[in-house]
Every structure is written in C-alpha cells, then in structure tokens.
Amino acid sequence: MENCEEKIFFRFQSNNEISELLNQIMLFKQLFFERVSKQIEDDYEVNNIWSQFIIRYLQYPDYCLLFKNQIQITADYYLLQHLTKKGFDFQKDSYFLRDLQLFNNQISSKFNLTMEKIAIDQEELSKDLNIIIYKQKLNNIGEYSYNINDYNVLLKRYNNRQSFQYDNDKTAQVEANQLFSQQQQNKDFTISNQSSQKINYTHKDTIMNQKIFLTLFWYDYIGIQNGQQWSLNSEVFDLLKQHLGINTEVFASPFNSNLENYFSLFESDKYFGSLGNFNKNYLNIQQSFQANPPFIDNLFTLFASQIMQILELNTQNNREVGCVIVFPWQDNQGYYQLQNSDYFIDEIELLKNAHYYTDQSSCSSIKSKFNTYILILGNNYFKDKYLQFPYLSDSIVEAFQIKKDKLQLRKQY
Q1: Rounded CA gap, 16 and 86, in Å?
Q2: Are residues 204 and 251 in the same domain?
Q3: CATH number, domain at 269?
Q4: Helical H runs in 223-331?
Q5: Among the three residues 172, 188, 222, which one is the final residue of a domain in this structure?
Q6: How far apart are CA 264 and CA 293, in angstroms?
Q7: Which range of residues forms the domain containing residue 149?
Q8: How many domains would you assign to the chain?
Q9: In the chain, what's the furthest Cα-to-Cα distance?
Q10: What's the pLDDT score for residue 402?
C-alpha cells in the first residue's frame, strides 16, 4: 500500500498569467487563515470555517469560487455568524472582511480577464501551460505539493473514463477547460524523481496531468483534508448496494466516492467519472441514491427541498426512488422537513464516539465526536424493498462501528 504521507510536486516552468492567477487565489486563502488564526488558534476550526465559507458559494445555482464582483463578503451573514461563534472578535480586526472583499474584487478582474483570453486565443496561451511534476521537493517558489495518493486516485479515474466523450455537453467542456487548454497536445510533459532525471510523456499525458493538477488545486483550495471529504465506511455502501440497489452518491468527490455513479462540486470532475455538480443536475436523477452532504447548516435546508423535488418527480413518473441521507444533527429545518414528509420511512441514530467515518485521503478511520442521524426516505416502491430486510438498520449500525488501521483504495470506477 502506498504511503499516504508521500507528496507529489507541481510547478509551472515559467511565470505566466495562469500561474500568477493561481498564486493570487492562494494568497486570498492565506490572508484568511493568517487573520483568523490570530484569534482562533485551533487549525481544524479555522479550516472548517474556510471550507464552509467556500463550499456555500459552490452549492448555489450559479456556483462560483467567489471571484465575482457582485459577491458581498462584508454582508455574508453565515460567515459573520460562524466566526463570532468560534470566538473571532471583529472589534480587534475591524477591517478583516473589508480586506477580504477588496482582495476578492482584485482577483475577480484577473480571473475574468484570463478566462476571456483563454476562450479567445487558447493557442497563444498554451505555450505558458507546460507543467513539471517532481516526486522530490525542490524548494521552488510557486511549487504546489499534494498527497501522491490523491494524485493516483485521479490518475486511475481519468484512465477509466478517458473513452467518455462530452461533445454533447459544451457547457461542461468550457468549464472543465477554463484554465488548461486542449491546444497543449504538442507539448511534452515531464515527471522526475530528481531534477536531473526526467521522463517525457505524450500529449495525452500532458492533457491528463493538467486536468489532474487543476482538480488537486481546487480541492486543496477548499480544504479537502479536514472533514469536508469524509465518507461512509465501504461496508455501509456494500449494504446499500446489495439490499437497496443504491449505486449513486451525491455530494461526493473523485477522492471519496465509493459507488459507480456520483455527483460532486465541480463540472470538471466529469473527467474523473462524476455526473457533474449536484445542484445543477439533481432534477435528472432517476435512481435511488445515498447523500452525505457537507456539514453546513443552511445547505441542509436547500438540500431537503431538492430531495423532495427528486422524490416527487420520480413518483409522478412511476419510478422507484429512495435515498439514504446522513445528518450530523437534528436541530435543522431541512432535517425536520424530511422527517415529517410523506416519503419518510425510517431513522437510524449512531451515538458519538461509537462509530467511524472514512477519510481515504489520509488512509484512516475517523471516530465521530457527534451523533449521526440517517434518514431513509422513498416512495412506496422503495419502501416495500426496504421493509423486506428488517435487520438492515442493525447491519448499518454495525458497519459504521468498523475501525480500520489501514485502508485500501476502493475500486476506481
């Protein structure tokens, strides 16, 4: 099994518009962390505030990574509330949100200009997009490092999905190629264990690794390593698939998905087997699914209404549909909406410190410090199937209690 601490390093061969833009984006994150960490010393909590801040914007219909002039960070109620709850005193740093807003506006201009130039003249910019990968740190300025296990997961997924064509989905193609041009096919890609030992790859490898780099960059940017990427134990998924025919996840990622079909944050994840962003595609769901949404309070409310629309639409069309949803708390409007709906079938409660989640990125089982509530919903077709297995709920509880010292990679579909 691979060492989960081993790193892989990326850098641009020369400074260019795209590398400068990515550096600015990371400086935005750095500004946030430096200012918040002065008052909130718990690194986990700071990362959690940041992740929820970014992911909220990704979940709306016109999802974005900020960088839009109309985004009003200074009026972000949920960010204000979250920071205050964790002990941030705005009187000690009264210009914090203003500085974030100004930095966001600066990036917005560069972001939009660079995207426009790529769309107009991809061939001209392609000469700046050659990336070098190293397996040994070189201490270069502008060097990006990622978990090599995450790189290998994306590599496997990309190779398994490379035969898929998205010619009929022009929107997805534009979004997936925003930062990296398909005109790179005449460029060589290099990877080495040391700076003096380089291996040349074909243009197909170049394109593949550009997409891998972009995906690693964005998931690292939103905070992949701290809880927002937890998944259920593989044994839980096996039960859902075997007994309920569930083979689709929503709110997954290329790194933590366990089932054959999954929805994720980015449209560009389609290159790694995703069905796209859930919020843009949820009305197309015609099968039962499992959902482990980001643990963000206001998003659960939005998600609950989407679940109801999926259930109602499929029921009207006489299709069997059901879902297994994970909630980290009960005191939430979305939870009550689903629990009191006509589609509610069952609820399973898992007690804190007595069950585990899985983080494949760190190859570890993580003990839950909070109760978990699993809601089973579906129409009558799905309900009849669920009731055929009266001990399934007990089996799910037992599967959540499994702790593994070492995790093997799941099959990459």
Answers
A1: 39
A2: no
A3: 3.40.50
A4: 234-244, 278-281, 297-316
A5: 222
A6: 10
A7: 7-222
A8: 2
A9: 65
A10: 83
Same domain (yes/no): 51, 186: yes
Same domain? For 157 and 12 the reply is yes
Nearest to 262 by CA among 302, 290, 232, 234: 290
Using alpha carbons, select from 312, 355, 347, 343 the residue that is nearest to residue 327. 347
Residue 366 or 164, more confident:
366
Element (H, E) at 363: none
Whether residues 308 and 211 fall in one domain: no
* Contact status, residue 325 vs residue 236, Cβ threshold 8 Å: no
Instruction: Write the CB contacts of 135 (distance below 8 Å, at least 6 apart in sequence).
Output: 6, 7, 8, 9, 148, 191, 192, 193
**Residue 389 tokens, joined:** 């297995």
Q: Is the pLDDT of residue 168 over 70?
A: no
For tokens 């410190």, name the residue.
353
Q: Reduced to 3 DSSP states, what percent helix, strand and coil does the chain have, rounded to the nearest 5?
A: 45, 15, 40
Closest CA to 58 of 331, 361, 302, 309: 302
In a shared domain, residues 198 and 336 = no
Q: Would the pLDDT of 69 be above 80?
A: no
Could you say which DSSP state residue 341 is in?
S
**Residue 227, in any domain of the structure:** no
Q: Which two tokens stand for residue 310?
A: 């999926």
Residue 90: inside a domain: yes
**CA 322-328-333 angle, 5° bins:** 75
Residue 179 confidence class, pLDDT cut points 50, 70, 90: very low
Kind plus residue range of the DSSP H or E element containing 259: none
Classify residue 1: in a domain, yes or no: no
Q: Which of 222, 250, 280 is the last residue of a domain?
A: 222
CA distance 10 to 142: 9
Q: How far apart are CA 392 and CA 177, in angstroms?
A: 43
Residues 216, 341 within the same domain? no
Q: Are strands 322-327 and 364-367 parallel, antiparallel or unpaired?
A: unpaired
Classify 89 as helix, strand or coil. Answer: coil
| Pair 323, 202 in one domain | no
Whether 116 is covered by a domain: the verdict is yes
Six-digit token string for 203: 């243009």
- The label of the residue with tokens 């509880």 reads 397
| pLDDT over 50 at 341, yes or no | yes
Query: Positive or negative, the Cα torsion across 257, 260, 266, 271?
Result: positive
**For position 64, what pLDDT does the model report?**
56
Q: Kind of pairing, strands 189-194 and 131-134? A: parallel
Q: Is the same domain home to 117 and 202?
A: yes
User: What confidence tier does 250 reach under pLDDT thresholds 50, 70, 90?
Assistant: very high
Closest CA to 64 of 177, 175, 144: 175
Give the separation between CA 255 and CA 216, rounded to whole angstroms.
Answer: 10
What pLDDT is attached to residue 195? Answer: 40
